Amino acid sequence: MATWTCPYCNHKTILREEDRSGETHQYVSRKYGLINLRSGIVQCPNDECNEIVVNVGLGATKRTPNQSSMRSTTTPIRPNSKARPWPSYVPDPLIADYNEACQIELLSPKASATLSRRCLQGMIRDFWSIKKPRLVEEIDALQAKVDGQTWDAIDSLRKIGNIGAHMEKDINLIVDVDPDEARLLIELIETLFDEWYVARYEREQRMAKIKAAADAKIKPTAANVARTAVASGLQPTQAATPTQPKKS
Ligand SMILES: [Zn+2]
Q1: Are residues 31 and 96 both part of a single domain?
Q2: Distance from the CA of 103 to the center of ligand 1, in angstroms?
Q3: What is the tally of helices (H) and strands (E) in the chain?
Q4: 248 band by pLDDT with thresholds 50, 70 and 90
Q5: Are residue 47 and residue 91 in the same domain, yes or no?
Q6: Which of 54, 59, 94, 170 could be a cystine partner for 78, CB 3.0 to 4.6 Å?
Q7: Residue 43 C-alpha to ligand 1 middle, in angstroms?
Q8: What is the 11 CA–ligand 1 centroid distance (Å)?
Q9: Is residue 184 in a domain?
Q10: pLDDT over 50 (residue 242)
Q11: According to the model, what pLDDT value does residue 22 have?
Q12: Residue 144: which residues within 8 A CB-CB, separation 6 or more?
């Protein structure tokens, strides 16, 4: 079974029967055929959160060939965007652009993509200290610093939906983008938040932990000796002097 990630607390879990509810409202329309309005409620199983997530989906099944097609949509009601929560060490201006790109991805894919591109540029400048006049030059400079797969993904997205031709000239220029492209750009931002900021932070934490553990073992300080003594119920002087094995 697929794991579910809470958009409020980021907790990953498998939903139980009692954590979710869904209903479908059907209506036979003249223009689109059978309309399905689906609503779903999920309660986060993490007791420290227990937030409620609500989505509504709309689609139609044509009943006669001359009826019109309706594009299926899923609209997040609560939270009202698919934005994921990010730790505080990801810079605020990047999070602000990302959150706004998520909020308007369905309403205005063009504006959403513009914000995602600005967020991508902000990340390249902040994380890699690459600063050039045009985003295309910054992405070129990035090629020497990231793995081939990541760079290819960034470069491919630059080319999608005519973004490439325009974003080189002006980062704020609005070009035609469809909702799928806006989503792909948001997912690229999420991947890079994870692979750059989160991975660097977690690596730093792991290294600091290893160093602290090694330091404590190699260089027993007075404080460490006293702690060991307290833990073992001995006086510091006794703990500091290893007892000699008894000679028989
Ligand atoms: Zn939660």
Answers
A1: no
A2: 19
A3: 9, 6
A4: very low
A5: no
A6: 54
A7: 8
A8: 6
A9: yes
A10: no
A11: 97
A12: none
